[in-house]
Amino acid sequence: MKPLIYGYMRVASDAPDDELDDIEQQMRRFAEVEGFCYATTFYECQNGSQAAFNELAEELQRTESHHVVVPSMSHISAHPILLAHMVQRLELDAGAQVVELCDVR
Length: 105
Known about the structure:
Radius of gyration: 13 Å
Helix content: 40-55%
Strand order of the largest sheet: 2-1-3-4
Number of strands: 4
Number of helices: 3
Largest sheet: 4 strands, parallel
């Protein structure tokens, strides 16, 4: 059985749907090429919110999954200290590794 991988991205209110679909398809292709089963994408739609991120962390723990793909780390946070804290939370709470899509192209 292939390990699960989850996607996470922040979505601007004015982001075109076709652009979001394209990014999600890129994450799905990455998962397939790397031998993962792509579970779902968690979308953070409200600026400054961490609701979807918290749901992702809970889902990783619930499913005992350890992999997350993001379009870029800025989708987690543009602020370096908050970014480090949030990635560390995924690592410590769920043993998860976060992979940037832009790093694997």
